[in-house]
Amino acid sequence: MGIYIVKRIMTIIPIFLFATLLTFGMIHLSPVDPAEAYLAAAHIQPTDEILAQKRHEFGLDQPLHIQFVNSVIKISQLDFGVSYVTNKPVWEEVYSRIPATIQLTVGSIIIAILVSIPIGFLAGLKKNSGIDHFSRFLSFFGASIPSFWLGYLLIYFLSVKLDLFPVEGIGTWKHLVLPSVTLALPLIALYTRLLRASVLENLQEPYVLFARTRGIHERVIMGKHVFRIAISPMITGLGMNLGHLMTGAIIVEAVFSWPGFGRYFIEAIFNRDVPVIQCYVLLAACLFLISNLIVDLIQMYIDPRISRKERQFL
After folding, report:
1. What is the value of pTM for the model shown?
2. What angle do CA 32, 79, 281 make, to 5 degrees?
3. Which residues of the chain have pLDDT under 70?
4. Which of 36, 56, 54 lies closest to 46, judged by CA?
5. Which residues pair with 82 in a beta bridge?
6. Which residues lie below 8 Å from residue 52, measured CB to CB, with a gap of 6+?
7. Count of domains in the chain?
8. Do 145 and 289 fall into the same domain?
9. Helix ranges restricted to H, the chain
10. What is the per-residue pLDDT across 136-147, written as a single tens digit (0 to 9) for each?
11. 188: domain CATH number?
12. 115 is in which domain, residue-wise?
């Protein structure tokens, strides 16, 4: 296990460097000059002299390989530069907004897990029953409805008409309900479908038949064996969605005026705030890599068959 973890961590380093190189290349291939973007955000009339000064200040007059090395060194120190709009360090701006995004992410994941696990598991156990038909409807509905439209519907009916929840902002638990539900519904659709299919597949496995012939109680078979193996695809999906939730809840944060990282990224795009965009892309890459590593370790713990395959591979 320890050797596997070390190897996985070692593979993260070149992937992160590639992501840094890709972001670096996109910035330099973009028609937007960072110096011009900075002056435009600062409402300063660009002249040749000021542009040359800013390019020298940003290090844009150096060779590309030196710029890339300096960029990697600064990023390793969490130095993403200064925002063109606020003139504050980008990491400080991001760090102040991450807690709001984490709060929204955790809330949506909790709702998705609490809803999808019982519905998906029961739908797999009772195929073609009422709960199974409901799970299919929920999956189709959650996968097809756009997040922004669902958010506006929830605002209209539950906030404007019934006055049950606040329309926007952050503060109490009531502010968290509507954006969390909006963000959780696509996850509920995905996890319910994955868990149902996995349960149906595992019910046909030989170990279920062997357990029944040994006289093991049906609840023990379903709870201790089938559920433990069937939930594996759902955990994989959760790991793949975790990075998306942390960095991609852009639409939901915009609809509910949630002061998170996604909304900050949207503002950075409109303002052509290059350091913020670079920080967003690299942070998204790190979150995807770390979440996938954590999910792989959880999978090895849940399913002993994966652990044996990894030991044979090592």
Report:
1. 0.80
2. 50
3. 1-2, 4, 247-248, 302-314
4. 36
5. 89
6. 61
7. 2
8. no
9. 2-29, 34-41, 48-58, 64-76, 90-125, 130-144, 147-154, 173-202, 206-213, 218-220, 227-230, 232-248, 250-255, 261-270, 274-302, 304-313
10. 999 889 888 888
11. 1.10.3720.10
12. 97-271
